[in-house]
Prior knowledge:
Order of helices and strands: EHEHEHEHEHEHEHEHHHHEEEHHHHHH
Strand order of the largest sheet: 4-3-2-1-5-6-7
Shape: globular
Number of strands: 11
Number of helices: 17
Largest sheet: 7 strands, parallel
Bound molecules: nicotinamide-adenine-dinucleotide, magnesium ion
Distance between the termini: 79 Å
Strand content: 5-15%
Amino acid sequence: MTTTKSASIQGVTLLGATGSIGVSTLDVLARHPDRFRVVALTANTQVERLVEQCQRFRPEFAVMQDLAAARELEKRLRGERLAVAVLSGIEGLNTVATLPSVHTVMAAIVGAAGLLPALAATRAGKRVLLANKEPLVMSGHLFIEAARSSGAALLPVDSEHNAIFQCMPSGFRAGESRAEVRRIFLTGSGGPFRGWSQEALATATPEQACAHPNWVMGRKISVDSATLMNKGLELIEACWLFGVTPAHIEIVIHPQSVIHSLVEYRDGSVLAQLGHPDMRTPIAHALAWPERIDSGVRSLNLIDIAQLNFERPDPERFPCLRLAYQAAEAGGTAPAILNAANEVAVQAFLDRRIGFTGIPGVIEETLARLPASADVQLEAILVVDAQARKLADSFVAGKARRSQQEAG
Ligand code: NAD
Ligand code: MG
């Protein structure tokens, strides 16, 4: 039987198209019009950027989470004479995450807001490219179970997890436990404040926190990289994806961000994945897996790099890492509480309501006040997420009040 080329073109929904991962994904997709077709693009409020993306990629659907922004988008697209159906809200996101014409869903919304559409795509048996790590931290078992029963392929895009996936035995599927894997080394750059003293950290600004030495990313993950909460979230993410416990994972600070993580086997072999710190590599890998496609990333020059360094993380200056370990060990709803409190604290820091060193305090107080439960069904996770946000908000308000009184 002969098949036409267009019959094999895969439809793609891009959740979070206007963000850092979204833009890198479009860059890779644009290199392969013979393989991929953009079916839907989504964003929160950035109308102008989504209009430009619709002009270039001509999707069938565009979704704005925000209703007013959706109306504005519809008006702008009509003005441009673009035949794009505009949807809004969580229903719109869920619709485009599960369309029959869609083969692959890139989950690149930031935070817990991406949980429901990513889960819907997994339940619908799509190829799900997971950049959005927070849903996995909150409810990893739901994703692993859903993928098992629907046959969805869950492919990690987070650079470390994509590296680990690439080093896993062939045929490995997310959530499996492999006896031949002895240990995982999860690498991290150490963030922009790696060498900073405790005193300097107390005065760190959002601008400094968002100026990452190796990666250009959205503001939330940039702050997480600066507090090392990103590595803590990644620890929990890795436990779900690779069927291991925190005891099997060693976090290693590797300032050059050239080795993206490593897997140690029981015979002593250690496999690593290396490359430029450019998200287009893991994105292209997950899009084409098990094949390989061009990503636009240049070749690695080992002579220029010359040195690769490794050090232990410092949980004294970066207490978020300790809190993440604590939540990972506690299990149940503890990681969801950790995640919600972190999202609130990071936003408060970005809004200059609390200082950088106030972030772990908000998370610690929330974890201490809200007991974790063993009920990890979706409803329970959503309830605990809302409760933790409310509590964390009140701790932020208290901190903001105290620092205003001190300043006054
Ligand atoms: P970003 O802030 O640059 O983009 C976020 C995207 O999500 C935007 O398109 C925005 O419109 C959309 N969005 C935000 N809030 C929303 C809401 N409430 N409802 C619907 N859509 C919403 O973030 P990013 O850096 O691209 O990161 C996206 C995800 O990927 C995060 O979970 C992050 O941890 C993960 N990740 C990012 C990188 C990176 O290099 N940027 C690397 C690894 C993992
Ligand atoms: Mg990462």
